[in-house]
Amino acid sequence: MSIKNRINNVYRYFEPNLSIIGYLGAIGFPLYYIVWNYLFPQQYENLLLRVICGSLFIPFILKDHMPNWFSRFKDIHFVFTLTIALPFFFSYMLLMNDWSIIWIMSFMTAVFLSILLIYDVYIITGMSIIGIATGVTAALSFNHVEIHNFHWGYVAVISFAYVTGIASHYRNHVHYEDQLLFARSFSAGIAHEMRNPFSSLYSSMELMLDILRQRSEQCAHNNEENINELKSIIRSNMTVINNSNETINLLLSSINEHAISKNTFQEYSIVNVIKNAVESYGYQSSEDRNLVTVKYNKDMTYFGSDILFRYVIFNLMKNALYYKGKKNFSIEINIDINKLHNVIKVKDTGIGIAKSNISSIFDEFYTHGKKNSSGLGLPFCQKVITAFGGSICCQSQQGEWTEFTILLPKIDSKSTNKLKYELLAQKRLLYIGDNNQDVFELQKNSFSFGYHFLTVSPFRLVDIDQHLNQADMILVNLDSYGEHNYYMTKLQHKLALSTTKVLYLYREEKALHLILNPKVNYKLVNLDKLKPGVTEGICRYFFTHFNQETVPSPNSLETQSILLVDDNTSLRMYTGILLQRSGYHVIHAENGLKALQHLDTHNVDLIMMDLEMPLMGGLETAKQIRGNDQYKNHHHTPIICFSASLNTEQQQELKAAGMNGFIFKPATKDQIFETIDRYLN
User: Fold this and answer.
1) Closest to 656 in 3D by CA, of 626, 612, 614
2) Considering only CA atoms, which of 65, 59, 62, 120 is closest in space to residue 85?
3) Percent helix, strand and coil across the chain, each rounded to 5?
4) What angle (nearest 5°) sits at the alpha carbon of residue 204, between those of residues 202 and 208?
5) In the prediction, which pLDDT does 483 show?
6) b (16+ CB within 10 A) / e for 74-103
């Protein structure tokens, strides 16, 4: 792990308690000048040094009100402040006070405090060495200190305190990390086991839809109504599966980040998300759907996650529908707006909540009146809304009604803009073109806006390959290509294999004659009409949906064969039938060893392979295919990983093993065929 990542982890670990340390440092340093200078006078005191140290703690107190640029350096400032305020200050004052008992005790206090604040062995060791060395140098060089009370035994005691303190605290933290790792592994295992049946169910429904499509063309018109009804039910079930899978992905992401992950936040329509949630909720009966109504006068936009917000609505509806048996029960969702916020009110006419319980409903593991409830739903909802920059509260009249009020900041509010800026600091922008004016402006503004900027020549395809997958958004200057349709076609082929957003920029109308690949996730942007400015206008697209329509076109040549490797028999069977019905020749294998045996006797055009399988998994199989001369005919055959979940580290392992891409289970028919088409054509 790099030093930068270690510093960031240390900061995130202690961030919830930052304000407390800020007040202690900002007040304590100048306050103790009075203590040691007037109440219990010491040999040496320095008011200016104490004021400087105290002022370093002020940003901890004002962390939510600091300027946007400061957020990029807040973790470095944290470590710098503690280095100056603890090892440097106390070692300097210890020497200046000639190793007095009071300052030896003060220095030992600083040792234990720094160990409590910084758990990382490397960071605390580096801080201590740098701080103490600087403090000793300053005391000996600038003040010509004469030391009379020094004893080498002090060094032995202090060294022992450092070593034992760091070792003990590190051991406790390792134990905590082990527990957390177990929780992550356990949740990931559950998610994987849930996704496998989801995948099989999803594939079987895709197959049923495909069969129904053909049968509907052959059947008489009087059966068309029944067939359409079946299709509707299947699509509804598929929507529920898809929504559940998306929720699993985001919940796992949130667990891994110790908090709600904000990296995927974008702008969404409140009305669309709520309507989608109401329509896709897993009702126990069709009558239950009629209990829910949505009312609004005007649509609004919020900044956050559509999946997590849908989860919040799901949870509130689930809690309310538990009491649907009450007479005249109903749920009403009202969407409104006031001067500062978007307002969403979810009101049900259930049994209500007692006043004594309302203050506890957002506490973790608190539950009341419902069987088999974990007490985690509402606390997680509160975390989601807080991550959006909003708030959620509850009012209720016992026996009559319950109303949850969600306040979300407006899309142009200061809090939303601050959050966008913080996220921009993590974004990477790749510019492909040769317009020096635009490059200069984007490069110049990269520091103030916070994004990382990189530019590549439009005709250096090798350099483009190197940086393509590292970018969060790609800018392509169409004017740079002019009549060079050959290079543009090559570039678009590479862009079509990526899900990264692409902005096609132009000023000259002739650029519009270039043929654009519909499979690229792109927007066409006229720079002369971009408001309020080029940089700000482009940065807005980081947080905007690209609803680019893609038209999958599976190749139907029977000569193209696909090796399908998965230990899930039903998933492999249904996916295989779908592929066969589209004209592909499919070879089945239940693990990596069987796959290698097939490759000895068959030539295939593409391999779709699960990651975790008995006997031999996907990674090891891919390494054998790429590195063993026995399979030299397939050294360059595309290998697609078909897996339930992949984190960043696993994706890098796939690439290193020679896999070309991946699909998450459960995947739609369109996703499968589109991916196959990308690599076969």
Assistant:
1) 626
2) 59
3) 60, 15, 30
4) 115
5) 65
6) bbebbbebbbbbbbbbbbbbbbbbbebeeb
> What are the residues facing 477 on neighbouring strands?
505
Which pLDDT value is given to residue 516?
Answer: 72
Do residues 459 and 433 make contact, with C-beta atoms less than 8 angstroms apart?
A: no
Closest CA to 605 of 508, 509, 531, 676: 676
Residue 303: what pLDDT? 92
The confidence score (pLDDT) of residue 242 equals 64
pLDDT at 571: 74
Say if 214 falls within a structural domain: no
* 515-551 residue pLDDT tens: 677 777 788 888 888 877 788 888 888 888 775 443 3
Q: What pLDDT was estimated at residue 558?
A: 46
- Residue whose pair of structure tokens reads 């006078």 in the numeric block: 41
Can you list the residues of the chain whose pLDDT is less than 70? 1, 143-147, 169-204, 207, 211-259, 282, 364-376, 483-485, 497, 511-515, 547-559, 570, 645, 666, 681
Residue-range definition of the domain harbouring residue 506: 426-543
The pLDDT, as a whole number, for residue 556 is: 40
Of 81, 82, 100, the closest CA to residue 41 belongs to 100
Tokens of 307: 């999946």
Residues in the chain, total: 681
Residues 287 and 315 in one domain: yes
CB atoms within 10 A of CB 335: 20
* Whether the Cβ atoms of residue 300 and residue 410 lie closer than 8 Å to each other: yes
How far apart CA 224 and CA 112 sit, in angstroms, is: 77
Taking the C-alpha atoms of residue 8 and residue 257, their distance in angstroms, rounded to an integer, is 12
| pLDDT computed for residue 240 by the predictor | 60
pLDDT at 549: 40
Q: Is 495 a domain residue? A: yes
Q: How far is CA 442 from the centre of its chain?
A: 25
Quote the DSSP letter at residue 222.
Answer: G
CA 97 to chain centre: 51
pLDDT at 241: 65
Say yes or no: 478 and 610 in one domain: no
Domain boundary residue among 118, 150, 182?
150
Whether residues 358 and 472 share a domain: the answer is: no
What's the whole-model pTM score? 0.53
The reply to whether 252 falls in a domain is no
Report how far apart, in Å, the C-alpha atoms of 359 and of each of 272, 393, 394 are: 31, 9, 9
Q: Is 402 found in the same domain as 324?
A: yes
- Is-contact 79 127, C-beta < 8 A? yes
